[in-house]
Amino acid sequence: QVQLVESGGGLAQPGGSLRLSCAASGFPFSSFAMNWARQAPGKGLEWVSRILTDGIYTYYPDSVKGRFTISRDNAKNTVYLQMNNLKPEDTALYYCAAGMSYWGKGTLVTVSS
Q1: CB-based burial of residue 81 (10 Å sphere; 0-12 exposed, 13-18 middle, 19+ buried)?
Q2: Where are the beta strands (DSSP E) in the chain?
Q3: 3-class secondary structure, 106
């Protein structure tokens, strides 16, 4: 069955870094654009990055551009999100999604001193 399992969340200090991973199985990973989205406490879902199937084209909203980097390894069926210069407003539950079809359960990122 389809599975997306996020990992790598945790507590980081402002200005720090975290690397999220999302391991996929049960569908043709290399055929799907992959996304990361987040939901902060009490707020709606916010898309934070997208990478196309070739791993070359990536997209980010202004809120994370220059700080977050999405990448993928099609041989490992895994997508990554490198998050640098973290801010308290990055605190959220982070989800990966295959297209908009399949979603993981999320990994919690907390940015606090």
Answers
A1: buried
A2: 3-7, 10-12, 18-25, 34-39, 45-51, 58-59, 68-73, 78-83, 92-98, 102-103, 107-111
A3: coil
CB burial string 85-108: b at 16+ within 10 A, e below? ebeeebbbbbbbbbeeebebebbe
pLDDT tens, position by position, 56-109? 899 999 999 999 999 999 999 999 999 999 999 999 999 999 998 899 999 999
CB-CB contact of 24 with 33 (8 Å): no
Residue with tokens 């001193």: 113
- Please give the structure tokens belonging to residue 3: 């599975």
pLDDT (tens digit per residue) in 4-39: 999 999 999 999 999 999 999 999 999 999 999 999
